[in-house]
Amino acid sequence: MVLGLAFAALGVFVVIQGGAVAGAQTYARVGPEVFPRAVGVGLALIGLLLTLDALRRRWRVEWAAPLALPASPQDTLRLMGRVALMAVGLALSVLLMRPLGFVVATTTLFLCVTVAFGSRSVLRDFAIALAFTATVFLAFTLGLGLYLPAGRLWSF
Amino acid sequence: MDAMSGLLHGFGVALTATNLLWALVGVTLGTAVGVLPGIGPALTVALLLPATGKLDPVGAFIMFGGIYYGAMYGSSTTSILLNTPGENSSVVTAIEGHMMAKRGRGAAALATAAIGSFVAGTIATFGVALFAPTVVRFALGFGPADYFALMLLAFTTVTAVLGTSLLRGLASLFLGLTLGLVGIDMQTGQARLTLGLSELLDGIPVVILAVGLFAVGEALFVLSREALRRETIIPVVGRVWMTAAEWRRSVLPWLRGAFIGFPFGTLPAGGAEIPTFLSYSVEKKLTKHPEEFGQGAIEGVAGPEATNNAAVTGVLVPLLTLGLPTSATAAIMLAAFQQYGLQPGPLLFQSNADLIWGLIASLYIGNVMLLVLNLPLAGVWVRLLAIPRPHLYAGIMVFATLGVFSLHGSVFDLGMLLVFGLMGYLMRCADMPVAPAIIGLILGPLAEQQLRRALAISQGDPTVFFTRPLSATILAIALAVLLLPPLYQLYRQRFATGMPRP
Predict the structure, then answer these.
(1) Residue among B242, B288, B6 at smallest CA distance from B130
(2) What is the mean pLDDT of the segment spanning B183-193?
């Protein structure tokens, strides 16, 4: 239901934002604001219908599905924790990319994902991650000529 | 250029040493990445798009043709041995193929899939070469109104065909359309929906959305579903080659598959899912061994797999001639064209004949290479399946980061990748198909452009869409696609409740 309402809200937002660019007159009579309005109205309508579906219990969002059914709240939370851990890994890699470079950023990401997927030998994974990301870094920068950040902190 | 001279010209382009090398690289990479579980063809193409960045357009597209086909082959290997189809059109292959693998005929299943794909792919590529020039001649007469109608049709078929609920399909489509609005308006140069962020002025790249939804969203989804993480690989044992009986039982399904798949692929009707199911039921009806269906019947692999390949090749007809992508993979191919400043459509056949015919010819070559590569190397690909899950997904994430970052060298793009990944996870949890969002993002701006051009020509008169016979017909079909299934269901419900069973 929340998601349905979110869709409706997004629709209203798109209508308002789309209207904000109106002003320039073109000969076409269909300016840049028309299409956003149509899409926004569509989104709002879909949002309302989704909300109705949710209220009638014909549509439900399942956040996690543990193996043991029925799902206990602890199990669901445990799985959500894993999802969160991976998301944190991605966020960290975004933040670390500029200052510490591709290798450090993606090694961090790699470790977060392996732990989230239940790998327990962190040291071995660390070695794999470092070797893997360093190889990728060298292959793509030297081999294919793409630019990847080496890290601002390391550069002299 | 007609089909024959075009093809000959294309082979002239494709058969140079460098271009052959690119085709080989594309096929190998496509298969290797496509084999990895959880990676379907669309994601394979999206992840490998940046790797082609430094090539000239002709070489890049020849490599792309290889990746496209390689990804299909790879995905069928995964569905047979792991029972995890990478995309909807391999679902049927997974049914019978996985049962065959369980009975120790995995090698034969892989072989019939590979040869079937080769046979059907070759026939279908010939079909593309034959039909594309005709469609081009026809399409030169299309006006903006007709294009707009065609795009609406693509929207409706894609949403109505994919997924379980029309409403959720539409929700996904409109999400894509909204994302497509972001950036500078193509007609007037005004910024829309950018929230004041200069990074968004250029719009949202399709590759980031595709990688976010398919790679990051999918990995998060798998994390949250414990049952999805327990799967067993079936080792390929027994005789590697197909028996004479298996050959006899495969040949006709291959051919039938090619002729079922290609026409469906060329229609703007959502790609390869429907024809593979159709082929499966046809083979089930015609087989002399109906008792084997459900236990691993070779016809059930040969037919649908050939159909799948013919259909994905057929998808290239609307993509190349009209610029109309009808599957997620085709949408990413279209993005690849746009990356080189090319807009597929009838004019491309004249302005870039080298590229188009080179691409079509290299599809043939790629097909041959795949056959050579896959029959002996199946064992190597299978070993890729044995990578432990944690490391596999971690590696995919590193490649996703790499692919997205190397698009523009922008950290902002990585942030977008995270946001789309979370969005993909939400959509998967909410049982919303993700492909319509990708089609919406890439076709939305094009549809808007055609709409406004049409209205500019007609001086704001909206009846232009209904007075042109072609666009009126297409719009009527689009409406029917959207309205018929719910009406039919309503009718059936009425029927079922109104008449007591005898």
Answers:
(1) B6
(2) 67
Q: How far apart are CA B345 and CA B106, in angstroms?
A: 42
Nearest to B287 by CA among B308, B275, B301, B305: B301
Residue type, B445: P
Residues 18-37 of A with CB under 8 A from B: 18, 21, 24, 26-32, 34-36
Interchain contact B415–A (C-beta under 8 A): yes
ipTM: 0.81
CA torsion angle B185 B189 B191 B192 (round to 10): -30
Q: What is the CA B398 to chain-centroid distance, rounded?
A: 24
Alpha-carbon gap: B356 to the closest alpha carbon of chain A (Å):
25
Chain segment B457-476, per-residue pLDDT in tens: 777 677 777 777 777 777 87
pLDDT at B498: 45
Which chain A residues touch B175 with a CB distance below 8 Å? 43
CB A148 within 8 A of CB B405: yes
Helix, strand or coil, per DSSP, at residue B87: coil
What distance in Å separates residue B287's CA from the closest CA in chain A? 39
Exposed / middle / buried, residue B247 (Cβ in 10 Å: 0-12, 13-18, 19+): middle
The vertex-B333 CA angle with B332 and B337, nearest 5°, equals 115
Whether B47 contacts B211, CB under 8 Å: yes
DSSP assignment letter at A142: I
Say whether A132 and B220 touch across the interface (CB within 8 A).
no
Contact criterion met (CB < 8 Å) for A91 and B177: no
Cα B462 → chain centroid? 33
Query: Given an 8 Å threshold on Cβ–Cβ distance, is A86 in contact with B415?
Result: no
In this structure, what token pair is assigned to residue A60? 């439900």
Question: Is the model's pLDDT at B502 over the cut of 60?
Answer: no
**Any idea how long chain A is?**
156
pTM given for the model: 0.81
Q: What is the DSSP letter of B217?
A: I
User: What is the model's pLDDT at position A27?
Assistant: 43
Closest chain A residue by Cα to residue B53: A146
Q: What is residue B225's three-state secondary structure?
A: strand
Q: Is the pLDDT of residue B97 over 80?
A: no
Structure tokens at B428: 């998967």
Q: What is the H or E stretch that residue B152 is in? A: helix B144-161
Q: How far apart are CA B222 and CA B228, in angstroms?
A: 6
Is residue A16 less than 8 Å (CB to CB) from chain B?
Answer: no
Say if CB B97 and CB B308 are below 8 A apart. Answer: no
Helices (H) and strands (E) in chain A, counts: 4, 0
Give the CA distances from residue B20 to residues B31, B314, B364, in Å, rounded to whole numbers and listed in that order: 17, 23, 11
Instruction: Compute chain A's Rg from CA coordinates.
Output: 24
Reported as a single tens digit per residue, the pLDDT across B32-45 is 887 877 677 778 88
**What angle is formed at CA A50 by the lines to CA A21 and CA B447, rounded to 5 degrees?**
40
Chain A contact for B431 (CB, 8 A cutoff) = yes
Q: B355: closest CA among B19, B131, B104, B99?
A: B19
| pLDDT surpassing 60 at residue B387 | yes
Q: Which residues contact A44 (CB under 8 A, 6 or more apart)?
A: A7, A8, A11, A12, A15
- Three-state DSSP class for B192? strand
Residue B69 and residue B178: Cα distance in Å, rounded?
31
Amino acid identity at B168: R
Interface touch B187/A26, C-beta < 8 Å: yes
Q: CB distance from A41 to chain B under 8 Å?
A: no
Which token pair is B440? 């919406």
CB contact under 8 A, A36 and B192: yes
Hey, what amino acid is at B411? V
